[in-house]
Design a protein that fits this description.
Strand order of the largest sheet: 12-15-14-13-16-17
CATH class of the largest domain: Alpha Beta
EC number: 2.8.1.13
Oligomer: single chain
Number of domains: 3
Structural class: alpha/beta
CATH superfamily of the largest domain: HUPs
Number of strands: 17
Protein name: tRNA-specific 2-thiouridylase MnmA
Catalytic activity: S-sulfanyl-L-cysteinyl-[protein] + uridine(34) in tRNA + AH2 + ATP = 2-thiouridine(34) in tRNA + L-cysteinyl-[protein] + A + AMP + diphosphate + H(+)
Helix content: 10-25%
Distance between the termini: 34 Å
Largest sheet: 6 strands, antiparallel, barrel
GO biological process, one term: tRNA wobble position uridine thiolation
CATH topology of the largest domain: Rossmann fold
Radius of gyration: 22 Å
CATH architecture of the largest domain: 3-Layer(aba) Sandwich
GO molecular function: ATP binding; tRNA binding; tRNA-uridine 2-sulfurtransferase activity
Shape: globular
Order of helices and strands: EHEHEHHEEEHEHHEEEEEEEEEE
């Protein structure tokens, strides 16, 4: 049920234009605010390891971002705190990312971070400092539906900035205490609002990289991180094979591949070849044509339901299998597998390209998020 909130709101401040604009908007509306930044990763930590840059700047969660967030808080004359969550971030996000990648899957650390750390920790810290709500710069919308008795998460007005794909893990409690003030706004208007408020970050570019992986070079990060831990990169070298089992070549490790990958296979072929599947037990990587990447099925587990309490009968949904994927229509069915962790099966109306284990599958009906899970 909706609750009667107090007037103090904790704003999650990343140092970017979106969260800064949220703080300026709520301040102008007369709310009492407290700015919070989660310090998640030491950008200098792996500096000097082979292939890693000496210093990292201008990325999500960098020292620059903390400086920018603090400066915005000073401009708006609101209290500001940095909350050190580096140990928990490593345990809940970095280590699972490393384990998944070494197992031949392609995880999404930003979703793991939202699901297991950011919103949970922000709400806990907010309560400790006397605020019972948080506001973030995510492009999403939420509301309480009286008829269903549930909080509903929906896509934003600006569909090009839709971030609901990364938020499917939010609980009803978290949704009830979270505000998304930018959900009804277009990005150009948000930048203008920040400029009108005199914020120096108004024209700051959006961060596109994973905060702890410079340049998106997963392989180099894995080697550097394991080296820091005193571990060697596991030997997962094996064969590159066709769908019929024909051996086309050798590879140095399954961690170098992801489903749908074309470049870097080390093979020459008349027709382009793509990674179709990664087999962690045999260390084989199956390759084939672009057409071979098409599939109508996926299974997902570790589910979270938002617009419904659970899935009890088949429903029609549209599904995103990647952040930039156009949602595709499918029939979603519960799989009875005798375990506590429910699994669902999705049968798409039309074949989809490169359904990738480890990625999220998020289910929609119109603009509403029904729920989501992790592709197995």
């Amino acid at each position: 049920m909706p609750h009667e909130p107090n007037n103090t709101i904790a704003v999650a401040m990343s140092g970017g234009v979106d969260s800064s604009a949220v703080a300026a908007l709520l301040r102008a509306q007369g709310h009492d605010l407290v700015g919070l930044t989660l310090q998640l990763w030491n950008q200098r930590r792996l500096a000097g390891h082979e292939g890693m840059p000496e210093a990292v700047q201008g990325r999500c969660c960098s020292i620059d971002d903390v400086y920018d967030a603090r400066h915005v808080a000073e401009q708006l004359d609101i209290p500001y705190y940095v909350v050190n969550q580096q140990e928990r971030f490593e345990a809940d996000v970095v280590k699972p990312f490393v384990s998944e990648y070494l197992a031949g899957r392609t995880p999404i650390p930003c979703t793991l971070c939202n699901n297991h750390l950011k919103f949970d920790q922000l709400l806990t810290t907010a309560r400790q400092i006397g605020a019972d709500r948080i506001a973030t710069g995510h492009y999403a919308r939420n509301r309480f539906d009286e008829a269903r008795g549930r909080w509903i998460l929906s896509r934003p007005e600006d569909k090009s900035k839709d971030q609901t794909y990364f938020l499917f893990g939010l609980t009803q409690e978290q949704l009830s205490r979270t505000m998304f003030p930018l959900g009804e706004m277009q990005k150009p208007a948000v930048r203008q609002m920040a400029a009108d408020a005199g914020l120096a970050v108004a024209q700051k570019s959006d961060s596109q990289e994973i905060c702890f992986i410079p340049g998106g070079d997963y392989n180099t990060f894995l080697k550097a991180y394991l080296d820091e831990q005193g571990e060697d990169l596991p030997n997962t070298a094996g064969e590159l094979v066709t769908t019929t089992g024909e051996v086309l070549g050798q590879h140095d490790g399954i961690q170098s591949f992801t489903v749908g990958q074309r470049k870097g296979l080390g093979l020459t072929s008349v027709n382009p070849l793509y990674v179709l599947a990664i087999h962690p037990d045999s260390h084989q990587v199956t390759v084939g044509s672009d057409e071979d990447l098409l599939s109508r099925d996926l299974f997902a587990n570790r589910l979270n339901w938002i617009s419904i309490p659970e899935l009890t009968e088949p429903i029609r949904v549209s599904i995103k299998i990647r952040h930039r994927h156009t949602p595709a229509m499918a029939t979603l069915t519960r799989v009875t597998n005798g375990t506590a962790d429910q699994t669902v099966h999705a049968l798409f109306d039309e074949p989809q390209r490169a359904i990738t284990p480890g990625q999220s599958a998020v289910f929609y009906q119109e603009d509403e998020v029904v729920g989501g899970g992790w592709i197995t």
